[in-house]
Design a protein that fits this description.
This is Lysosomal dipeptide transporter MFSD1. Its main location: membrane. Helix content is about 75%, strand content about 5%. It has about 450 residues and is mainly alpha-helical. Helix 6 packs parallel to helix 8, helix 9 packs across helix 17 and helix 13 packs antiparallel against helix 19. The longest helix is centred in the middle third of the chain and has 34 residues. The structure holds ligand L6ULR443. Ligand L6ULR443 binds next to helix 2, helix 8, helix 9, helix 17 and helix 18.
Length: about 450
């Protein structure tokens, strides 16, 4: 056997980075579609005559199947049992199909005036929501798949930088959605136009992933030839779930993830309204300051990922990131700090927190979970995150706002809507951040006891 055959493909710099480029592109397309409806809310209300409650129903559909049908947990298990090629293609195809259904629902007139019996929900809202729910399964499972793919290719190399680059690239999708969604919709005078662009992007993402599959097959072959595939090929057993759940560090990182993202993702959903209600920003500029966040995280996630690779300190980075979150939310809580420049400065600091934690969290999991169980482990983490951060907390904040925070009525262009005091929701977000710090500290202590190596560099020196 020649030396060239003996070496696994993952030792090739070009192959490693090409694989990263391809899966990151597929993720970018997914994040575009995940966020493209947010800037379209006013157009949806004008053209499709959806109410805010209907928009909220649709937005929440993202997590329906993931959480209540346990699709994320099954997805992780399928990934470990069937591999990245099967799971990646399946989830990419699901994203395309889900987005196509959503596009059809918001573009057709055949659903006009139809209502779903018993549920009393407009048929258009329901069909769009079901499409979004299917898409939600696809994007979350491809997220787990991409993370496991990167862990495989970059083990012993720049794993945190690679994961940071993947998350940073995906956030370009979010930034594109926030920046381009409304102008495209307005230009074509159709909510469906930016969604159709999403279907096209996802189809290109699927084709790109098919190319990745060829590389993955080649990687399998070279790993086999070089005798490095034993761990990966050991079959996944259902009892592995028990094994994963018996690791205290796994629980700490899962709870930290749920708490941290609960103080970020739902906050972002309400941030434009907070800007208007507390910081007296004009309605038409409501999204301008929160919109800075994805841009700030794109380079920062990469910088902190690179730092983790070279210097380590993963648990400390997660604690610092969570602390920044506490500081930012506390600033948003203080009633007299209401100048827009305060909001701008706080959002920039939030960008640091929102980069520090993801760039240290995701590459830390392979330090204490074996590769063959990684899909299941990430699936369980994402499931908990979906349950708490993408479904439970947004619902709780909406309830708290309606029940305890209405202070009067705002009238804009002759249209009246409730005026809210955001102090209580911001106290909740601050507490979530504080709890995230506590679980970060617990994780760091567990790392010291068990020696996971979270404070050590990821890159073999
Ligand atoms: C890597 C991580 N991904 C997630 O948290 C996903 N479960 C949610 C994706 C939401 C897309 N707007 C991240 O994005 O930090």
């Amino acid at each position: 056997m020649t030396e060239a055959i003996k070496r696994s493909l993952r030792h090739s710099v070009a192959a490693r980075w090409t694989s990263l480029l391809i899966v990151s592109f597929t993720m970018l397309c997914g994040y575009y579609v995940a966020d493209v409806m947010s800037p379209l809310k006013p157009l949806i209300e004008q053209q499709l005559k959806w109410t805010s409650a209907e928009y909220g129903f649709f937005t929440g559909a993202y997590a329906w199947f993931n959480v209540f049908l346990g699709m994320l947990i099954f997805g992780g298990i399928i990934l470990d049992k069937m591999g990245a090629r099967f799971t990646g293609i399946l989830s990419s195809a699901l994203m395309v199909a889900g987005c196509a259904v959503k596009w059809w629902a918001v573009s057709t007139h055949s659903l006009d005036h139809a209502v779903v019996p018993l549920l009393n929900v407009k048929a258009q809202v329901m069909v769009a929501s079901l499409g979004f729910a299917a898409f939600g399964v696809g994007i979350e499972i491809i997220g787990v798949t991409a993370t496991k793919v990167i862990a495989r290719w970059f083990r012993g190399y720049e794993i945190a930088l690679a994961m940071g680059l993947q998350v940073g690239t995906a956030r370009i999708g979010t930034a594109l959605a926030l920046e381009l969604g409304a102008p495209i919709g307005a230009y074509f005078k159709a909510v469906g136009a930016p969604v159709l662009l999403g279907v096209i992007l996802l189809t290109i993402g699927l084709v790109a992933y098919v190319f990745y599959c060829a590389m993955d097959r080649k990687l399998d072959k070279t790993e086999e030839e070089s005798g490095q595939s034993s761990e990966d090929e050991e079959a996944f057993r259902i009892s592995d779930i028990r094994e994963i759940l018996s690791i205290k560090g796994f629980w700490y990182i899962t709870i930290l993830c749920a708490l941290f993202y609960s103080a970020v993702f739902p906050f972002l959903k309400y941030a434009p309204d907070l800007m208007v209600q507390k910081f007296h920003v004009k309605d038409s500029w409501a999204g301008a300051i929160p919109g800075i966040l994805p841009f700030a995280t794109i380079p920062l996630t990469v910088v902190f990922g690179n730092y983790y690779d070279r210097k380590g300190k993963g648990a400390s980075l997660m604690i610092i990131g969570s602390l920044l979150l506490v500081v930012v939310h506390f600033i948003f809580t203080v009633p007299f700090l209401s100048h827009w420049t305060v909001a701008l400065a706080a959002t920039i600091v939030l960008g640091f927190g929102f980069s520090l934690v993801p760039s240290a969290m995701w590459p830390s999991v392979p330090k204490f979970i074996p590769h063959r169980q990684l899909g299941t482990a990430y699936g369980l983490i994402f499931w908990t995150q979906n349950l708490v951060a993408l479904w439970g907390i947004p619902y709780l904040i909406g309830y708290v706002l309606d029940r305890f925070c209405i202070t009067g009525t705002r009238v804009v262009d002759g249209v009246s809507s409730p005026a809210y005091n955001y102090t209580l929701p911001m106290v909740i977000f601050t507490c979530l951040g504080l709890l995230a710090v506590v679980f970060g500290l617990l994780l760091k202590r567990e790392d010291r006891i068990k020696g996971f190596g979270l404070e050590l560099p990821c890159r073999e020196q």
